[in-house]
């Protein structure tokens, strides 16, 4: 099945309407010729009625499509379309009457074919005016439609469709059935005419225009109905088309709805300014809700707030200031007053006892706008409006009027609503910016975490003489624990573990400095004691005064099976000796790096060398392990680590490390309870 393009539907229905009207004209003129010449035309009057109904339907389809196509048309344009159609129909009707008046006593004035031609022209224009106006009324009636109104309109359309065919039952005569049907249709039209929800949405100027257009429609409707009454004279018009239930009912509907609209619009004129004010307030409220965006200044929403409140209260001047009573107030917005006048008004307000009590005795979250009188040569009433965010007054807005008692309850309510919405917008703006900053901070922490992980070695240097493993965990996203290894030659390896004071990003930054110093100094082939002295000198120049680093360094010589060790304030290193069959902490002293920042530090550095045997184990760790507490605030402690090593010393370094960490987590009740960075290195000699 071929579907016609929608763009041709309007043109097709208009063409059909013209063809049907021409057919109706031709049929009626043929019937008239037969009547005048007493001949049998062979065309029944029912055929005229069928063409008449077809004309109504084609006109209906044309205008229904045309109006629906422009469904976004405003109210005033809809009324004007109905008025303009009525004006055209009236002008044509007047021109026809003027034409006959100019004929005078000419024989042409009684020419029946000419009269019936003009009669059909009038019939077409009246039908077009009534049907198009009814469809335009439909769009007005169904504005903000409900299910009940839709059903009422559908019932009316069905009744009007039945009225088209009513002519087949009463033979176009004015009898009781005609009057009964007319009463029903007029009643339905009156019920529909009560739907006038669109009128309040007209502005004051639009209402005056709509009154003019509605008046034109009422006049056109009355004049054209008078023409219908003239057409019903059967002595002049053999074929009567306009004296039927459908057209008369449409006349009543168009006239009644236009009259209702005219009267309601007329009575709404005094309240138009109030409605427009409320509409402005609603728009301002929406602007306040949508005004402020992330990364924008709060001045935007405060600027809208002042303008909205002045509009709602008809204020003559205003200013807005931020800051509480204990701080200097900063003026953000001023309207229609200078600095000197503002200071003068501020002093007058400050001297008002009621204003002092209002500011002092009430908590910020309980503050309401305060209207006061002023003895001033210009402004006689003032409204103080607090700006409260998160139960804290951040400032106030001052509205000034030149009349006494110029702020009524309704004004104060709407201003309070505006201020609350503005404060919510400002608070949301601040919270959103804070959230954005937090998100950026989290992203920066993730970057720092990745950087810190890259500072810890992924591969620990060692040879076949010993095995090694290490693990580190930060209490925050980044931490200050550090461990590293360095291969001096095939037999000598350096191991270091350190702990930066503090936690978080500052500790991580200092940890990166420690890595740089270790990687630089260890290549100088320094002894552990000399390394500590050089590292202290370097860190003293870059560490903040309240920061220090503890560290333990080991130089392992696998050829000689010796370990040279120095400690800088770090927790002691645990060692299990197979020959003695016991675990104990290495006894060696030392001062943390950065605590003493002069040459006296050399006096606090100690170095010790000891031998190891196959199967001996070294366990290096930070204080985060020994100081971890359980729910009773009891520390994990040194003794517990020593006991664990004595039990599991025969295991591999990785297994020993796992046993210690698992025991730590079980003791404190989970990793989340460890509130400090902790690291561990396990070395086992073979």
Automatic annotation (TrEMBL):
Record-linked Pfam families: SpoIIE (PF07228)
Q: Name one GO molecular function term.
A: phosphatase activity
**Domain PPM-type phosphatase residue range list:** 463-685
User: Which of UniProt's keywords are assigned here?
Assistant: Hydrolase, Membrane, Transmembrane, Transmembrane helix
The record's Gene3D superfamilies line, in alphabetical order, gives:
3.30.450.40, PPM-type phosphatase domain
Locate the transmembrane regions by residue number.
12-35, 47-66, 78-100, 120-141, 153-170, 176-196, 208-226, 246-269
Under the heading PANTHER family, the entry gives:
STAGE II SPORULATION PROTEIN E (PTHR43156:SF2), STAGE II SPORULATION PROTEIN E-RELATED (PTHR43156)
This protein is called Serine phosphatase RsbU (Regulator of sigma subunit)
Q: Which organism is it from?
A: Algoriphagus iocasae
Q: What is the lineage of its organism?
A: Bacteria, Pseudomonadati, Bacteroidota, Cytophagia, Cytophagales
